[in-house]
Amino acid sequence: MNGASMPVFSKFTEELDSVISRDPAAGGRISVLFLYPSVHVMLAHRLAHRLWRWGFKITARFIMQFARMLTGIEIHPGARIGRRFFIDHGMGVVIGETAEIGNDVTFYHGVTLGGLLPSVDTESQRLVKRHPTIGDDVIIGSGAQVLGPITIGRCARIGANSVVVKDVAECVTVTGIPAREVSSRRPQKETVFRAYGTASENSVDSRELVIKGLLDEVQSLRSRLNVLEDDIKSPKRDEISSSSDQESKGEGKSC
User: Fold this and answer.
1) 186 and 93 in one domain?
2) What integer pLDDT is reported at residue 72 of this predicted model?
3) Residues 183 and 172 in one domain
4) Domain tally for the chain?
5) What is the DSSP track for 213-228?
6) Nearby residues of 113 by Cβ (< 8 Å), 6 or more positions away
7) Domain that holds residue 124
8) What is the pLDDT of residue 1?
9) Which pLDDT belongs to residue 66?
10) φ/ψ (deg, to 5) at 155
């Protein structure tokens, strides 16, 4: 059943169940309905986004400002958000006007989907795409900043406090400032929800591989240098030994 034909009640229970499946502390539907700011802000956004598309932009902005005061989550009514979107904890999340978010996406607190230098040459940035596009099944860790009109591929993972300013491929985990790839996996939907976008136990940071390679090269150069030093010292030892032999022979002669 597609989203257009799905009854409103079924859509709503689907949203509640998606929260329960991703948060072990959620409890049942009643607690999710009354206690989760993600549910409250998304109810407001579903209404505000429709009003925004219909041209009632001031009313849409007013609704989202009220939702921001209630939840601590700021979502522009122009942002396009798919089904089963979940913001865990929620406080401090900012989602810009031209952001696009797919289905089954998870954010943690402090995430920003923002633009690059919006205060510089503002006029040229109006009515153009300036915020990220997030694919399906993406997880973005707490405090991460995803900036500019970039694309985050399906099933990607972004580690906490990362700053992402370039496209991220499907099924890749990135961390750091600026964000770098630390692991990748086959493009398939995971059956178990894995939080925070952390790398697997077997993954290796590419920077560690570079550092290890440099250390190995230094060790190799050190070994070669020791060999050269020994070669340089060997002739001197031979000269000293030869000189000592000549002196010994000279002392044995009589006048």
Assistant:
1) yes
2) 94
3) yes
4) 2
5) HHHHHHHHHHHHHHHH
6) 79, 94, 95, 96, 99, 101, 131, 132, 134, 146
7) 8-202
8) 38
9) 96
10) 65, 15
Which has the closest alpha carbon to 173: 163, 183, 165, 162?
A: 183
Token duo for residue 19: 């929260």
| Residue ranges in the chain assigned as alpha helix (H) | 8-22, 29-35, 37-53, 57-71, 206-251
Predicted local confidence at residue 141, as pLDDT: 93
Q: Which amino acid is at 114?
A: G
158 φ, ψ (degrees, to nearest 5): -120, 120
Closest listed residue to residue 23, CA positions, set 80, 77, 86: 86
Chunked into runs of 10 residues, the chain (255 residues) has average pLDDT values of 54 87 87 92 94 95 95 95 91 93 94 82 76 95 93 93 92 90 67 56 63 84 85 68 59 52
Closest CA to 152 of 131, 125, 177: 131
DSSP-assigned beta bridge partners for residue 106:
86, 139
Please give the order of strands across the beta sheet that includes 145-147: 74-75, 94-95, 112-114, 145-147, 163-164
